[in-house]
């Protein structure tokens, strides 16, 4: 079943010059770009995006990180895109993520882990509306 999902190439991806490397993996897999935007977000959008995490101890440094510079937000589409992208991204902690995944190959951090992908159909729908309210 074709799905849409929200993907973020977080500020570490942009700072490290890895946008092409990471986006290339999604494109090579066959996922289609439906919307894409480079932007620096404020704390309000960070809080809404990470609503499930705002009360957790790790959140303040996470908020500082995601607002620290430009990121690339995009909507990708394809068969089972939500699960496929979570698998390509790998486990949250780059030190534990499997080799072959984006985080496993390119990140050594639990916070600066390069990518975000929506974790369910409900999250994807909420996040796409939040980041791209005008997308038909
Ligand atoms: P994301 O939402 O960014 O795609 O990552 P995820 O689903 O793999 O992980 P999630 O549990 O949703 O956590 C969101 C982000 O919070 C940071 N984090 N830090 N214990 C910690 O210090 C901790 N746990 C999570 C990570 O940056 C993670 O991507
Ligand atoms: Mg998550």
Automatic annotation (TrEMBL):
Main location: cytoplasm
Quaternary structure annotation from Swiss-Prot or TrEMBL: Homotetramer.
InterPro entries cross-referenced by the UniProt entry: NDK-like_dom, NDK-like_dom_sf, Nucleoside_diP_kinase, Nucleoside_diP_kinase_AS
Keyword Oxidoreductase: no
GO MF: kinase activity
Cofactor(s) in the UniProt record: Mg(2+)
Top-rank taxon, per record: Bacteria
Location of the Nucleoside diphosphate kinase-like domain: 2-136
One Pfam family matching this protein: NDK
HAMAP family xref list: NDP_kinase
Protein name: Nucleoside diphosphate kinase
Protein residues bound to ATP: 10, 58, 86, 92, 103, 113
Top-level class of the enzyme under EC nomenclature: transferase
Recorded family membership: Belongs to the NDK family.
Catalyzed reactions: a ribonucleoside 5'-diphosphate + ATP = a ribonucleoside 5'-triphosphate + ADP; a 2'-deoxyribonucleoside 5'-diphosphate + ATP = a 2'-deoxyribonucleoside 5'-triphosphate + ADP
């Amino acid at each position: 079943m074709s799905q849409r999902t929200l993907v973020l190439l977080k500020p570490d991806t942009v700072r490290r010059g890895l946008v092409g490397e990471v986006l290339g993996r999604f494109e090579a897999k066959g996922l289609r770009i439906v919307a894409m935007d480079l932007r620096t977000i404020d704390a309000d959008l960070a809080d809404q995006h990470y609503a499930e995490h705002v009360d957790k101890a790790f959140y303040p440094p996470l908020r500082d990180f995601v607002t620290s510079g430009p990121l690339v937000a995009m909507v990708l589409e394809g068969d089972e895109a939500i699960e496929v992208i979570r698998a390509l991204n790998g486990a949250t902690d780059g030190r534990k993520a499997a080799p072959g995944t984006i985080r496993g190959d390119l990140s050594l951090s639990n916070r600066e882990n390069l990518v975000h992908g929506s974790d369910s159909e409900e999250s994807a729908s909420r996040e796409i509306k939040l980041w791209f309210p005008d997308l038909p």
